[in-house]
Write a structure and sequence with these properties.
The protein is built from 11 helices and 8 strands. It is α/β, with parallel strands linked by helices. The strands form 2 sheets. It has a 4-stranded parallel β-sheet with strand order 2-1-3-4, with helices on both faces. The chain has a 4-stranded parallel β-sheet with strand order 6-5-7-8, with helices on both faces. α2 crosses α6.
Length: 318
């Protein structure tokens, strides 16, 4: 009796540990007969799956529910990276760990490395309007040369997807026609999304958005919005008292009706600003840096999240 109870207990412990392991990060498994692709964060994972279709096995490095700015890979992640055929990362300084990883690769490595933002006209950090440069002094991400959030413009996302397509064709020329066809479908959807954003936001009289962190420069530039970030390029950088005072003054003077926050970081500062200025509406504006567990379960993707962003922008700017 005791032995059976002990055996049952051990089984429960083993199952619990397995579950904890699964929840703690993505289990990178290489699949024979497919192009194994590892992506650095969610949008790249989504685009690669849509372009690669049945021919690819895509593993996303950053676990569900984790914000990628401060995430760093473990040694096991590095091992899986070396075993893959293609590695896709954003670039523009988003993944601070990539330089060391690429430098550690064996000279004979056949790994295809894709910098998805390559060829895109990047926005320099010091060119941006707003208070992002004044926030969170001393944080490593504030020293970024460029704003890395290019994927939030559907047109720039299309350029990123094209870079991914070229890498898949290079790694697996036998399925070139499928990759080309899948990319054409994705490209058409991104064009349609761009047109919808352009037509919808163009009709709104108010163009000022107060956001939790400096993630929406490319979206703002594309659609004539003015982004005022509470925090800088790093979503966890604390704003200074002076910058909060200036943003509060801007909110009052421009009769801002909504403050936008995001799901993967604390909404504490956004709520404090809303309380200070009397703004009653808090809305999600998702930087698409990762999915929550609920979004993953519901089958959300780049397009559904961007559609939600558009709906909330309309609510906040009317």
């Amino acid at each position: 009796m005791k032995s059976s109870i002990k055996a049952g207990f051990l089984l429960l412990v083993t199952a619990a540990l397995a579950l904890m392991s699964a929840c703690g990060g993505n289990q990178a498994k290489m699949v024979e007969g497919k192009v194994n692709v590892i992506t650095s964060f969610y949008p790249l994972y989504d685009f690669t799956n849509k372009i690669g279709g049945e021919h690819v096995n895509v593993v996303n490095l950053v676990p569900t529910g984790v914000e990628p700015h401060d995430w760093t890979p473990k040694s096991s992640d590095m091992k899986h990276l070396s075993a893959a055929q293609v590695f896709v990362y954003n670039g523009a300084g988003l993944e601070g760990w990539v330089g060391n990883f690429l430098g550690s690769l064996n000279k004979n490595s056949a790994l295809q490395v894709v910098e998805a933002s390559k060829g895109i006209d990047l926005i320099r950090a010091e060119e941006q309007e707003g208070h992002g440069e004044d926030s969170g002094h001393g944080h490593e991400h504030e020293e970024l040369e460029f704003n890395p959030h290019v994927w939030l413009s559907p047109l720039q996302a299309k350029n990123m997807a094209e870079n991914i397509k070229h890498a898949l064709i290079s790694a697996d020329a036998a399925h070139k026609s499928d990759y080309e066809a899948n990319f054409a479908q994705l490209s058409a959807r991104l064009d349609a999304l761009h047109n919808k954003f352009q037509n919808t936001l163009g009709k709104l009289p108010n163009k000022n958005i107060v956001v939790s962190h400096d993630a929406f420069a490319y979206l703002a530039k594309e659609y004539g919005l003015k982004q005022l970030p509470i925090m800088g390029l790093a979503p966890d950088a604390e704003p200074t008292a002076q910058s909060m005072k200036e943003i509060a003054s801007f909110v009052r003077q421009n009769q801002v009706k909504a403050i936008f926050f995001e799901e993967l970081v604390s909404d504490k500062v956004a709520k404090a600003l809303a309380a200070d200025t009397g703004v009653k509406t808090l809305l999600v504006l998702n930087p698409l840096e990762g999915l929550t567990e609920e979004q993953e379960k519901s089958g959300a993707d780049y397009f559904t999240l961007m559609e939600n962003n558009l709906q909330n922008l309309v609510k906040g700017l009317q």
